[in-house]
Amino acid sequence: MARTKHVDDLNAGQDSFLDVVTNIVGILIILVMVVGARVHKVVLHAVTESAASPHAELEAEVDGLAGTLTSAESEVEELQTQTQLVEAAIDGASSARLRLATEVSAAKLEVDRRRQAADAAKVAAAERAARRAELEEAIRTCALETEAVGYQKATTAEVLAYPTPLGRTVNGEEIHFQLAGDRIAYIPLEELFELAKRHTQRHSGSIAEMATRIETVGPERGFALDYVIEAKIDQARGQVLIRSREWVVRPVDPSVGEPIDQALASASRFRGVLAGVKPDTTVTLWCYPDSFACYRRIREELHRLGVPTAGRPLPEGAPIGGSIEGSKSVVQ
Predict the structure, then answer these.
(1) What is the Cα gyration radius of the chain?
(2) What are the backbone dihedrals phi and psi of residue 283, each rounded to the nearest 5 degrees, phi first?
(3) Which residues of the chain have pLDDT under 70?
(4) Which residue among 5, 17, 100, 243 has its CA within the 20 to 30 Å range from the CA of 36?
């Protein structure tokens, strides 16, 4: 009996535990359902709020953008107005800059012109000052010379008076002198022509040979003669004429002759030649450029002696010569 009671007690305890568990599970289920309902409401509310909230934000953002757009359009219009003003100002500045550049260039040209004019004026002033100084120095020099002349004794000078220089061609006898290197030398032209004549007569050949022959004779008194033989047939008379077509006389020694001072002395070779000629013989002076002063002295002496004189100036290095086409000397 005692054992049976123990079993009943045990069964009663198990039922109570199951009830408790069942109640707990029921409560849990109720709680889950309640929580689920609450969560569903919360989700729906959240979804509703989330669906409504972006639309309002977008509308607000659109409203803000519209205001910004309106403000931006106003700013753009203002910027366009300012841009037009700036472009107008730029155009005006460009025109002003072009005018300014033109005026600056013109001013530079004017400055350069005035500078050049000033430089030219300075140069002219300097030249005038230098010329004035030269003239003042010349005036002082003349004054000193004039004062010095006043203290000098009067002197006389002999002035040679030449007759009026009426030229005439020399047709009579003529003798020749060479003036070179301040020396005068007698040219024995007639003697050389006589030597050439005798030489041609001794060595005459055929007419063809004589037409192209160049001969040389001398020296005679320091001069040699080179001449060209020409043969000419006179058909009317039936004769062959032989003559010198052209000739050149040349000194054998460049220092031939005697110095002018020695030639003007009383016992010189120059005076010895003059002493043996006729009074109407013309003296021809062949003068080189380095002896013009000697030519004047010789001419004065010949004029004093009353001897007709002819001058033949020669360029440096030119030979003394003549030809059948040449001209005769002219005496004054």
Answers:
(1) 71
(2) -100, 120
(3) 1-21, 38-56, 150-171, 203-213, 231-244, 324-332
(4) 17
Q: What is the spatial distance between Cα 187 and Cα 88, in angstroms, rounded to a whole number?
A: 104
Do strands 174-180 and 282-287 pair parallel, antiparallel, or not at all (unpaired)?
A: parallel
pLDDT of residue 167: 45
Domain range annotation of the chain: 12-118, 168-331
State the DSSP H helix or E strand holding residue 205, giving kind and residue range, or none if neither: none
Pairing of strands 330-331, 320-323: unpaired
Three-state secondary-structure class, residue 283: strand
- CA gap 30, 34 in Å, rounded: 6
What is the structure's pLDDT at 329? Answer: 55
Whole-number Cα distances in Å, 155 to 54, 141, 149, 160, 264: 142, 22, 11, 16, 25
- The answer to whether the beta carbons of residues 277 and 168 sit under 8 Å apart is no
What pLDDT shows up at residue 330? 52
247, 230 in Cβ contact below 8 A? Answer: no
Residue 288, pLDDT score: 92
pLDDT value at residue 206: 54
Q: CA dist 308 to 168, 183, 260, 289, 293, Å?
A: 10, 21, 19, 22, 19
Maximum alpha-carbon separation in the chain? 224
- pLDDT computed for residue 11 by the predictor: 52
H or E element in which residue 305 lies:
helix 292-305
Q: What is the DSSP letter of 253?
A: S
Map tokens 């002349």 to a residue: 149
Has this prediction a pTM greater than 0.85? no
pLDDT of residue 8: 54
d(CA 160, CA 300): 8
